[in-house]
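WP5 quarterly update. Target: Protein-lysine N-methyltransferase EFM4. Source organism: Kwoniella dendrophila CBS 6074. Length: 282 aa.
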Amino acid sequence: MAEEELPPSKLGTKDHWDGVYDREVRVFNDVGDEGEVWFGESSVTKMRKWAQRNIPDTDRTVRILECGSGNGTLLLSFLSSIGPKPIKKQKFHLTGIDYCEGASILAESIAKTRIENLSEDLTEDEEDEYYSNRDRNESDEGEEDEDDEDDVEIEKVINDIEGIDWRTEDLLTKDLAEQWDLVLDKGTYDALCLSQDTVQEQDGRSRLPSQIYPERISNLVKQNGFFLITSCNFTEEEIKSRYTKEGLGLEFHSSVPHPSFSFGGKSGTTVCTVAFKKVSPS
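Structure tokens (predicted):
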């Protein structure tokens, strides 16, 4: 059965996002406002906590890529780690890719400011955000987690960042010829699926961004690496269906709980966060 495409919207156009980030760069330069956090700080915290639980404990540098990195809020959450004591400092190399030059400029400016002000002291906002997003029903494999994070003392450590790259690239047309341990998407697939402008590929095919993007993602994830995506336009089952197709080499790993609502006898969520593991070459 063919997948149903979303109706086109200005949110699926590069012109729209160029305008958004050009404006947000001006605002940041004027008053220091970092701009909108897509899906809110809660989604950033949930994705960061998933990564902290599931990234292997290793002494090597973990390479992390965010596709459609925008103002860099999600990627910059890896500058530090917050969790129950004792928490281990990790080594990261961070790469943010966005097709808007303004987004890369904004993210680089925000990163410079955040790094200058890094502190291991937990702020009240950080502590509140951590506890308000505790996932009591989440574990690595989606089973019930009985740990009650209200009963443990948390701390914050500054991670070893071996580099941060902000690139202006179009993932639909650019072959990066690189792979990462963890690839992140927070709303980028949603936006691309709102475009009905086909992309001309090197093999002569012309396809929609929604059809090309999962293949590009698969190529970016290392063997045994992870892809973590948050979406508001698709259900968890729809995301699973689109990213576990034959040939992609991705399998469902786990999902992150979000607040649910009930209407007409049915319940659901406005946002889903789903993780996949790369189990075979694409």
